[in-house]
Design brief:
This protein is α+β, with helices and mostly antiparallel strands and 752 residues long. It contains 29 helices and 26 strands.
Length: 752
């Protein structure tokens, strides 16, 4: 090997690194001889004087391209060890094994020069401190990069030529396969065909990719595996939203052969990391498109319609598709005060409302930003839409449609005449060529060239006419328009018309709706922008609150106030006789009059006579329950009368009160209160103590019975516990030591 004199003892004292790389796994599997030659460089290092123990092989980059250092951990380890001065020489079969990028190779060679590291390949030994060696290695690196460029250009050119003929084969989506002759056909599997066709049918009916996913819930969907163990086999799984989008956006299902839909770009992050991103090109930038290349599941026009529908559903791109809710202006209503879109919110009762919630959330709301019931806006907008479709307006629209049709006919007529002239010229050139004698080759050659030129002109004219016709959507006929607009109101109000259909009909004519500022809170000012460019402004009354339209007549309130000393039953009869009703439209009863008194603060009639108390007051004085007093009255032990509103009025003097207390003292059923004093500030009820300790109330009653907690019986026999921190601590200790309480309680105590 040339240049062995450049090896010194300093180089031999350091490690000799053998770098091995193949560009792809296919090369690793098939080009075994090249891989073996690269591993043989380790023996070459030993022959040049490096001890076997100091020769290391780096083969972590087998199957990785040398176009970039990203993802090549072996190359990064090599560079780092060179920087540390641990490497005496780098061995490689060719310089291109190290890197195909001049930038990466130049960086490595510069580091090798600084650390006095040799580079060894099959041609010789290079010392980077020597200018000629450095120049030669740089030239080899540039040639290696150029070689990669030429190879890539040739392969891409061959692929582009094959794709231009529609012969370049690539993995087909599920539902399409190659036959024995290499042609694209529909998958003969009936289940696969049905599944793919049902995807397009579901999208046609649902109108969204998520609707297709919902339609396939619980149904399996096929997947053709490419590569790996299951290569070529048909697998089944769940249909996801991403797969639906892939199917709907793939032109192969429309019978079109497309090459170059995706383009890879390399970007540099702020940290200096280079990454490759694959992006989908716009349809007009696809390099090769062959229509009607094979049989498809739908026409290309249907494919374009589906693509437009998907674009209309992309909300993050500004689209506002109609949803399922009842709010008619959902997605197209804007706040005229702050200029931001209004969101739709559905209340618990299902009634929608439009709210300027985005501005409130960002603290950018203006004084006139507001919420409004959807019905207030929707009814006005729907009325404006139906009014625009009255017979007079429809007649004007039909006249405009006729004018548009005539204008289109005049514009397309020019293209048709150009095609007709080009066809005449082509026929004339053909007749001239056929009339020429075959032996007269000089004249025949010129006539043939002229004929080919005229045919090319004809093809160009036909292509231009077809492009113009395709770019101009077809207009419906006058009879179709008249049939559609014949009874729009009946179609609008029909129960079979869904909310989404009404929204679609609305958006065909109305571009957007704006809730304009209105100082009068009882009114709403609505702006309507039509697709024609015209605008309308409507002022409507806002929908009243429940408390506003379900309000009791003022006359009924005044009558109740003037007859306040009457009973509720008498007042109900009097109000009904006068023809008054409640706010809900029902007749007055005792409860309705009581509610009327409470809401309007009308004092009740004088209930008690002198010396009388109510049943609740007597129960409070005796420290018993209200039910005990009622029991005495019903058993005849206590005299009482029915007063106003059927309340018990009890004459109470000293003798009656004394008899009641004796009855309480002699009773074995009524609990004896320790005092008639109510609940003190530091005391808690049994339920509150049980909740604080997370135990049952029966446990607390057991402790009271055993006198383990301080408690007293208050009015009506209710227990009050003096629940101090010391008492709480002793209770928790008792819970932790108990073997009867559930384990969950004791475990909770231990967690504390």
């Amino acid at each position: 090997m040339r240049g062995t004199e450049k090896i010194t003892s300093a180089h031999l004292d350091r490690t000799g690194l053998v770098y091995i790389r193949q560009s792809s796994l296919a090369q690793v599997r098939n080009n075994t001889e090249s891989t073996a030659r690269q591993y043989g460089m380790a023996d070459e290092a030993v022959r040049l004087g490096w001890p076997r123990s100091k020769v290391e092989v780096i083969d972590a980059d087998l199957g990785l391209s040398g176009r970039s250092a990203d993802g090549r951990q072996g190359f990064k380890d090599l560079v780092s060890r060179v920087c540390l001065g641990e490497v005496g020489a780098i061995f490689g079969l060719e310089v291109s094994r190290l890197a195909r990028s001049s930038a990466d190779l130049s960086r490595l060679l510069e580091l090798a020069r600084l650390t006095d590291t040799l580079v060894v390949d099959s041609d010789g030994i290079y010392d980077l401190a020597n200018f000629n060696d450095r120049l030669l290695l740089g030239l080899k690196g540039t040639m290696s990069e150029a070689e990669l460029h030429f190879l890539t250009g040739r392969m891409n050119g061959a692929k582009l030529a094959a794709a231009g003929r529609g012969e370049l084969r690539f993995p087909l989506p599920v539902g399409l396969v190659y036959d024995d002759e290499g042609k694209t056909i529909i998958d003969p599997d009936a289940e696969v065909q049905a599944a793919v066709r049902d995807v397009f049918s579901a999208f046609c009916s649902a109108g969204s990719a998520y609707g297709v996913v919902a339609a396939f819930k619980g149904r399996r969907f096929p997947l053709r595996a490419y590569g790996g163990t299951w290569a070529g086999e048909l697998r089944f799984g769940r249909l996801t939203h991403a797969r639906v989008l892939g199917i709907l956006s793939n032109p192969a299902y429309a019978g079109a052969y497309v090459y170059g839909r995706y383009h890879s770009t390399r970007t540099v992050s702020p940290e200096g990391k280079i990454s490759t991103k694959v992006v989908e090109l716009p349809r007009e930038e696809w390099p090769i498109v062959i229509y009607d290349h094979h049989e498809g599941y739908l026409s290309f026009d249907d494919y374009l319609a589906n693509a437009a529908r998907l674009a209309a559903n992309t909300t993050n791109a500004g689209a506002r598709p109609p949803r399922e809710g009842a709010a008619l202006c959902q997605g197209i209503i804007t706040c005229g005060s702050c200029g931001r879109p209004m969101s739709t919110r559905y209340h618990a009762n299902g009634h929608p409302a439009y709210e300027c919630s985005a501005s409130r959330a960002d603290q950018m709301a203006t004084p006139t930003c507001r919420s409004i019931a959807a019905s207030s806006v929707d009814d006005a907008v729907a009325e404006a839409l139906l009014s625009a479709l009255n017979p007079d307006e429809v007649a004007l629209a039909l006249a405009a449609a006729d004018e548009v049709a005539n204008r289109r006919a005049r514009r397309s007529r020019a293209g048709e005449l150009a095609v007709e002239r080009a066809r005449y010229e082509a026929d004339r050139a053909e007749r001239a060529f056929l009339a020429c004698e075959p032996e007269n080759r000089l004249v025949a050659r010129n006539l043939e060239a002229r004929w080919e030129g005229r045919l090319a002109d004809l093809a160009e004219a036909e292509k231009a006419l077809a492009a113009e016709m395709a770019a101009t959507p077809a207009l419906p006929g006058r009879s179709e328009l008249e049939a559609l607009t014949g009874d729009v109101a009946a179609l609008w109000h029909a129960p079979t018309t869904s909310a989404r259909d009404r929204k679609r009909l609305l958006r065909t004519l109305i571009a957007d709706v704006t809730l304009l500022p209105e100082p009068d809170l009882g009114k709403a000012r609505i702006g309507i922008a039509w697709h024609t460019g015209a605008t309308d402004e409507i002022v409507v009354a806002r929908r009243m609150r429940v408390t506003e339209y379900r309000r009791t007549d003022l006359g009924a309130i005044e009558l109740t106030r003037s007859q306040a000393q009457r009973s509720n039953r008498e007042l109900a009869a009097q109000l009904n006789a006068a023809g008054y009703t409640t706010g809900a439209g029902r007749a007055f009863d005792v409860d309705a009059v009581a509610n009327l008194r409470h809401y309007h603060k009308i004092p009740p009639a004088n209930l008690l006579r002198d010396g009388e108390v109510t049943a609740s007051e007597l129960a409070r004085r005796l420290g018993v329950g209200h039910g005990a007093v009622i029991h005495w009255i019903t058993r005849g032990w206590l005299t009482a009368r029915r007063g106003l509103n059927d309340q018990w009025c009890i004459p109470l003097d000293a003798e009656v009160e004394k008899a009641c207390r004796e009855r309480v003292a002699s009773s074995v059923h009524l609990p004896r209160p320790d005092s008639t004093e109510g609940r003190r500030d530091a005391e808690r009820t049994v339920g509150e103590v049980a909740a604080a300790l997370e135990v049952s109330t029966h446990v607390v009653y057991y402790w009271i019975e055993r006198r383990r907690v301080p408690a007293r019986r208050g009015p009506a026999g209710r227990w009050f516990i003096d629940f101090t921190p010391e008492v709480e601590a002793s209770c928790r200790e008792r819970i932790a030591a108990s073997v009867h309480l559930p384990s969950s309680v004791t475990a909770a105590e231990q967690d504390r």
